[in-house]
Amino acid sequence: MNWQTLVQSLFGDAHTIERKGDVLSGTAQLPGQQGQILAVVGTTDHAPIGVETALAQAKVILDTVQKHPGRAILLLVDTQGQRLRHRDELLCINRYMAHMGCCVDLARRSGHRVIALVYDQALSGGFITSGLMADTCHALPEAEIRVMRLPAMSRVTKISEDVLEALSLSNPVFAPGVENYVAMGGIASLWRGDLQSGLLAALADGNITDQRAVLGAERGGRKLSNAVTQRVLAA
Description:
9 strands
């Protein structure tokens, strides 16, 4: 789904969301919520997250925290991960992406409800520093999600790609795909049909604690994470 169709499905014409380069930003008004205004920021066209893209998104979030205390923020995620250019690496792209993630965290700690929606593609660090930093991250059923491709995972773990391929058939941790991220708890829910209802339900959920490990255990995608976490906390 392209971003214009998505925004129309979520807000109709009640928004000021615009595209500048690969970055989306603006505000939107929700129906039946006493005119509640949301801040919206995200990317499109499988945007690679470079220095400028990370700073542009961070600026929208910081402006919202400064000028509109408590305003909910919707992150629209469509990224192929960090931009693989010599220039960005020399400028320490990891620091810029970390800055963006810290801005999302600041918004959450400052009382802003932050909801993320993967509407197309979410890969690697671009997903980690946006969608996975939100209070809850949701997705469309047709979205493509993976943090690391199997060939790259093989190089990092020193496990052969054939073994990882076999593991991915039965273990969601090794497998790409939106359903596997639902099973692991990284994606709270899939929004089908009426997308506006999905957004309203996400905003109405008052639980802002990190439920990913709990959901992963309940759904069978991450069976040990929550148990180990609880043992550490009890130690």
